[in-house]
Design brief:
The structure holds 2 protein chains of 2 kinds.
Chain A lengths: L1 H22 L3 E7 L9 H18 L8 E7 L5 H14 L4 E4 L3 H15 L2 E4 L16 E6 L1 H14 L4 E7 L2 H16 L3 E8 L7 H10 L3 E5 L5 H12 L5 E3 L6 H7 L7 E5 L4 H13 L8 H18 L4 H4 L3 H5 L4 E3 L4 H9 L4 E3 L7 E2 L3 E2 L3 E7 L2 E7 L1
Parallel strand pairs in A: 1-2, 1-3, 3-4, 4-5, 5-14, 6-7, 6-8, 8-9, 9-10, 11-12
Antiparallel strand pairs in A: 10-15, 13-14, 15-16
Chain B lengths: L1 H38 L6 H21 L10 H29 L4 H23 L12 E3 L1 H8 L7 E2 H23 L1 H11 L1 H6 L4 H26 L4 H18 L4 H18 L4 H7 L18 H15 L11
Antiparallel strand pairs in B: 1-2
Helix pairs in contact in B: 1-6, 1-9, 1-10, 1-11, 1-12, 2-3, 2-4, 2-9, 2-10, 3-4, 3-9, 6-7, 6-9, 7-9, 10-11, 10-13, 11-13
Classes of the chains: A alpha/beta, B mainly alpha.
Chain lengths: ~400, ~325
Amino acid sequence: MNKLLLATAATALMTGAAFAESHTGDVKIGIELGFTGPLESITPAMGAGADMAIAEVNAAGTLLDGATVTAIRADSTCIDAGAASAAAEGLVTGDMVNAIMGADCSGVTGAILQNVARPNGIVMISPSATSPALSTAEDDGLFFRTAPSDARQGVVMTEVLMDRDIKTVALTYTNNDYGKGLADAFQAAFEAAGGTVTISAAHEDGKGDYSSEVAALAAAGGDVLVVAGYTDQGGKGIIQNSLDTGAFDTFVLPDGMVGQQLVDDIGEGLNGSFGQFPGTDSQGAELFQAMATEAGFDGTGAFAPESYDAAALIMLAMEAAGSNQSADFKGKVMDVANAPGTEIFPGELAKGIELLKAGEDIDYVGATAVELIGEGESAGNYREIEIKDGKIETVKFR
Amino acid sequence: MEFLNGLVFLTNFVIVPALAYGAQLAIGALGVTLVYAILRFSNFAHGDTMAFGTAVTIKVTAVLVGIGVTLGPLPTALLALPVGIAATGLLVLGTDWLVYKFYRVQKAKPVILVIVSLGVMFVLNGLTRVFIGVRDIQFADGARFVITVQQFKAATGLDEGLAIRTTQAITMVTAAITVAALFWFLNKTRTGKSMRAFSDNEDLALLSGIDPDRVVRVTWLIVAALATIAGVLYGLDKSFKAFTYFQLLLPIFAAAIVGGIGNPVGAIAGGFLIAFAEVTVTYPLKKVLTYWLPESMAPEGLVQLLSGDYKFAVSFMILLIVLLFKPTGLFKGQSI
C-alpha cells in the first residue's frame, strides 16, 4: 500500500513537473501527416521539410532565449477522421505539444480542428489541406494553411482554359472532400467566366472498371476533360479508358493529377494535356530545393516546401509573441507572414528570430512566397504545366 | 449516315465494354452457381479466389517474359493461365480438405458454411496481398488494340470511331470456349452427369453409387479454373488490384441470383444483364439522340436516367425486383 501511495505521489509530481515545463522553456511541435494511407508516398518529404525548419532553428539556438524545439510525429491516415482525431488528442494531451503542423488531407484536417485544436486551444497550420470549406470553418483564430484554397485553383484553372480559348469542358472528380470542393469551385469560376461545363460526374477511387463513367462523360461531350482525381487511383483509370475509347484526347490536370508516374504510365496519349499545381518562381523556392538536396530529401515533392513554411511560421510567431502558448502567438502568425517588414527566405530563420527579438517587423516569404489572406490561408501561386514528349514542362507562373 | 454514327458511338461506349464486362461476370457467376448447386452454399471467398489465381498468373507471366517467352500480339498471361489454374486448384482443394470438409461431414446448415466461406475469404484476402502486394499491376502485353478509333474512322469515313481492345476480343473468345467446354462436360461426360445427378438429388445419387468425394473434388477444380479465367480476363482488360476483386463479389452474386442460382445458363444471362444494366441505366443518351432524332427534337439536357453516383445501386435494384417477383431467378434455379 505504501508503495502504491509512493508511486502515485511520484507520478503526480512528475506530471506536475511536465505540465509546468510545457508552459515555459522548450517547445514541442506535433507533425501530423498521413504517413500511412493514400498520401503515404508524398508525406515523407513533407515531414522532412518540417524537420528541416526545426533543425535550422535548433542549430541557431536563439528561439525564445534558447528553447529547444522537438518534433513529435503522428499519423493522420488522410482518410480516417476518428484515427486522426485520436492521434491529435494524443499529441495535445499526452505529448503536450504547443502547436500542430498538419494535417494533410482536408477531411481529417477539419475533423482535428473541430475535435482537438479548438477545444484545447492549439494552433494548427496545415501545409496541404486545400478544401474551400475550411476557409469558412469556425476556427477561433487557431487555423492557418500555407496551401491555397481550391477556390483559388478553380479560378486559376479557368484562366488557363480561357487563355487557350477552350469554352466547353466535361468534369469528373474523385468522390471526397478534395475532389468535390475543387470541382464545385472550378465549375462556379468557369461558368462565371462564360464557359460551359457539360457534365460534372463523380468517380470512386480503387475500382477496376471506369467504362460507364467514361461513357457518360463522352456522351455529354466537351473540348477537354477536367480530371480532379489522383494519379494512381480513379483519375488514371478515367484517362486510360478515355484514350482507349477515343472519348477525349486532351486532359486538364489539377494538383492531385500532376505527377511523373502518371505521365510514364499513360505514355504518348498524355502529350498535349495541361494543368496547374501550387508552385512559385520566387527565389525562395530555389533556395529551398538546394537546402533539401543537401538534407537528402526530394524538395520538389508536392507540399514539401509548404511543410517547411508551416513549421517555420509556427516558430517565428512564437518568437514574435515571446511565448510558446497557442493563445499568445495565434495572433502573430499573420503578422510574421505578411508585409511590412524585412523579407525572410528559407535558411534565414535565425535572422528572422534576431529581427523579431530586436522588435522589428518581418515578412516571411519562405519557400512558397507565403502571403496569408482572408482567415489565414495562402493567396496561392500556381505553376502552369504542359505535358510535352513525356515530360512535365512549366509553361508559366500564375 | 447519322444513324450509323449514333450506332457506332453507342457500340463504342456501351455495347463493347458491357459485352466484355458481362462475359467476365458470367464466368465468375458460373463458379458461384456451381458451388451453390453441388456443395450447397454461397461461396463468399469466390472473389478472392479469383484474385489469388490472377496473382499467380501474373507472377508466372513475369517469369515467362523474363526468359523471353511471349505470345506475340496476344498477352503472355494466356500462356501462364494453366499454371495459375493449377495453383488455384491446389489452393481450393487444400481449403476444402482443411475447412469445408469438417462442416460437410457434420452436415452443417448452409448458413454456417456461408459464414465459414466468409472467414476463408478474409484469409485468402490477406494471402493474396502478402503474395503480390496491394499495388495496381498492369500485366497485359502484346498488341493493345484490334482496331483503334483512328483506324476505324479512316476505314469507314464516319465521324465517330470504334475501338476494340485486344483484351476485349480475347475475353469474348475465351468466354465462349470456356462456356462451351463446361456445358459439354456437364451434359456429355460421365463425371458431368454424376455432378448434375448429385446436384438434383443427393440421396438418390449416393444410392446409385456416385462417389461424393470425387464429385466434390471435380467441382472444386472446375470452380478454380473458372475463377482464375474470370480473374485473369478481368485483370487483363482493366488492371489487377487485390481490392477490386473483393468488390466484384456483389455484381457476381447479383448475376448468379438474378439468373437463378444453381442454373449455369442463368449465370451467363445474369452476368450480361447486370453488366448492361450497370452501363445503360446511368448512360446519358444526349449524343446518340442528337444523331438519331431530327435536329428540331435534339435534346438540351443529358437524358440520363440516373446519375453515375447510383451505379452501385443498380445491381441491388435488379436483385430486389427479381427476388420479389421471381424468387427462383429468371431461369429456374433453386429458391433461396
